[in-house]
Design a protein that fits this description.
The chain has 90 residues and is an alpha+beta fold. 18% of the residues lie in helices and 47% in strands.
């Protein structure tokens, strides 16, 4: 079995979060190799609003195993789209 690439892990994370939450994925915002596979960060629209700048967004972190299967996932952040990232980063 070939080793899972970052792109494949990202696609799996996106698909798994969409399947589990039933929410519309916005995209993959991070992929990082981990001792147990790949950590994939996925942003989703949790609640559509008008205007779209007031949509409620969420960031999920998934662990995709070397076999491409989802090992775990959790929501790590919720925010309003128009407010940007308030985590203190630059």
């Amino acid at each position: 079995m070939a080793e899972l690439t970052a792109a494949e892990a990202g696609r799996q994370g996106l698909k798994q979060v969409a399947d589990l939450t039933g929410k519309e994925p916005e995209g993959v915002s991070g992929v990082e190799r981990d001792d147990d596979g790949w950590l994939v960060t996925v942003d989703v629209v949790e609640d559509r609003r008008i205007p779209s700048s007031s949509d409620v967004m969420a960031t999920y972190e998934t662990l995709i195993g070397p076999d491409g299967e989802l090992a775990s996932y959790r929501r790590i952040h919720r925010y309003v789209r128009g407010r940007g990232d308030d985590t203190g980063g630059e």
